[in-house]
DNA sequence: CCGAACTTTGACCCAAGAGTCAAGAGATGA
DNA sequence: TCATCTCTTGACTCTTGGGTCAAAGTTCGG
C-alpha cells in the first residue's frame, strides 16, 4: 500500500473516530458536520472529500465502532479461561461493562434506537446487536443445559442484560472515579444473579 | 372556571398529548411542529397561540407524560395489596412494564437521555426519574431490611431494573400480541430474581 | 525544481423548519 | 344584531445546516 494510500486511511480513521464521538454525544439529528469538522480543525467541505454525506459518515462511524466493540467482546469470550460458569459470566459482564464505561463512553448511545437514524442504518445496528448478544446467549444456554444456570427465559435475560449494559455508561458518567469502579463491579454482580437458581 | 377557560384547557391537553406522541416517536431534534400541527389538523401558527415555542411544548409534553406515568406507578404501589414481598414486587414490575408497553409505547423514549434535549428539560427528566425510582427503592430496601431480599447494591439493582423497563417497549414492539404478553411476564419474572437470595 | 496528483478551503446554493404577525373567522354575551 | 373576545390562518422572515465546487494550497516522484 502506497504511502499516500496509508495516509488517506489514517485520515479516514481519524474522521470516523471523531464522528463517532459526536454522533454518540448528540445523536444523529443533533450532530452537525460543522462540529465534526471543527473538532478535527478542518472545514466542512473537507469531509465531503472523504464521505458522500452525513449518512455515509454516520454509517461508517457505527460500522467501525460497532465492529470494534463486538470483536473485542468476542475476543474476550475466547480469552477468558475455564472456570465455574458463574464466575466466567461474571468476568465477561464485568469486563464488558468496564470497556463500555471507560473506552466507549458515548458509543453505546449509538445503539439505542430512539433517535431517528436513517432506516438503512437501523438495520445494520440491529445486526450488530444480534452478533453482540450471541456471545452472552452462548454462555447462558450452555449454562442452562449443564444445569448450572436457571433462567425464566433466555431472551428476557439477554434483554435485561443488554439494556443494563447499554445504559451503564450514562449512569456511571455521574459518578466519581472510585465510585465508578465500584458501580461496575456491582452491576456485574447484580446481573449474574439473573441466571442463578433462586433459593 | 368559565366555559371558555375549560375549552382552552381541553385544547391544551390535546395538543400536549399529540406532541408527546411525536416527540416520543422521533426524539426532540427530529420532531417538527409542522408534524404536530398536521396530526391535530391545524396549522403550525396555531400552536404558537398556546405555547411560546418548541422547547416549551416539549417541556409540557414531558411534564405531563412523566407526571401521569409516575403518579400511576405510585398509585399502583399503594393499591397493590399485602402479600409476600417477592410476589408484590413482581406484580409491581409486571404491571409497570405492561403499562409502559401498552399505553405509553413511545413515552419512555422521552426519558432516555441520548437525544439532546434542551438542558433545562434534562434536569426535569432526571427529577422525574428519581421520583419514579423511589417507588421501587422503597420496595427493595424494605425487603432487604426484613431479610426477605438480598442485593449486591440497591443502586445497581435499581439501575438494572430501570434500564430494562425503559427499553421494554422497544423490545416488545417487534413481537406479536401473544408473544408480547409472554415477554412482559418473562421480564417481570426475570427482574425479580435480582433481589432473591442466590442459592 | 517542476508538474501532477492529492487535499483543503471558503464562498455559495438550497431546503427545512422555527418563529412572527396582520388579517379574518368564530364564538359569546348584552 | 352588534361589539368584543377568542382563536386560526397562511404568507412572511430568518437561521441553520446539508451539500457543491472552483480555486488555491500541499505533497511527492522524477
Automatic annotation (TrEMBL), chains A, B:
Question: Which residue range or ranges hold the HTH tetR-type domain?
Answer: 9-69
Pfam families xrefs:
TetR_C_24, TetR_N
Family matches, as InterPro entries: DNA-bd_HTH_TetR-type_CS, Homeodomain-like_sf, HTH-type_TetR-like_transc_reg, HTH_TetR, KstR2_TetR_C, Tet_transcr_reg_TetR-rel_C_sf
Superkingdom of the organism of origin: Bacteria
Q: Which Gene3D superfamilies match?
A: Tetracycline Repressor, domain 2 (1.10.357.10)
- Spell out the protein name for this chain: TetR/AcrR family transcriptional regulator
> Which PROSITE patterns does the record cross-reference, listed alphabetically?
HTH_TETR_1, HTH_TETR_2
Mind listing the UniProt keywords for this protein, alphabetically?
Answer: DNA-binding
Species whose genome carries this gene: Actinomycetospora termitidis
The upper taxonomy is: Bacteria, Bacillati, Actinomycetota, Actinomycetes, Pseudonocardiales
According to the entry, DNA is bound by residues in 32-51
Amino acid at each position: 500500500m502506497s504511502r499516500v494510500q496509508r495516509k488517506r486511511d489514517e485520515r479516514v480513521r481519524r474522521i470516523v473516530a471523531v464522528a463517532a464521538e459526536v454522533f454518540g454525544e448528540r445523536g444523529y439529528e443533533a450532530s452537525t458536520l460543522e462540529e465534526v469538522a471543527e473538532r478535527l480543525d478542518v472545514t466542512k467541505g473537507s469531509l465531503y472529500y472523504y464521505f458522500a454525506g452525513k449518512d455515509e459518515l454516520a454509517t461508517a462511524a457505527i460500522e467501525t465502532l460497532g465492529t470494534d466493540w463486538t470483536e473485542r467482546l468476542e475476543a474476550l469470550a475466547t480469552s477468558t479461561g475455564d472456570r465455574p460458569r458463574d464466575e466466567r459470566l461474571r468476568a465477561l459482564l464485568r469486563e464488558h461493562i468496564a470497556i463500555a464505561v471507560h473506552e466507549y463512553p458515548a458509543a453505546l448511545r449509538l445503539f439505542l434506537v430512539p433517535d431517528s437514524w436513517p432506516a438503512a442504518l437501523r438495520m445494520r445496528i440491529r445486526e450488530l446487536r444480534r452478533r453482540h448478544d450471541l456471545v452472552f446467549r452462548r454462555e447462558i444456554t450452555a449454562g442452562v443445559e449443564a444445569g448450572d444456570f436457571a433462567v425464566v427465559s433466555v431472551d428476557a435475560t439477554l434483554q435485561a442484560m443488554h439494556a443494563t449494559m447499554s445504559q451503564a455508561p450514562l449512569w456511571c458518567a455521574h459518578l466519581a472515579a472510585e465510585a465508578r469502579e465500584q458501580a461496575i463491579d456491582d452491576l456485574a454482580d447484580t446481573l449474574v444473579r439473573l441466571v442463578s437458581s433462586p433459593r
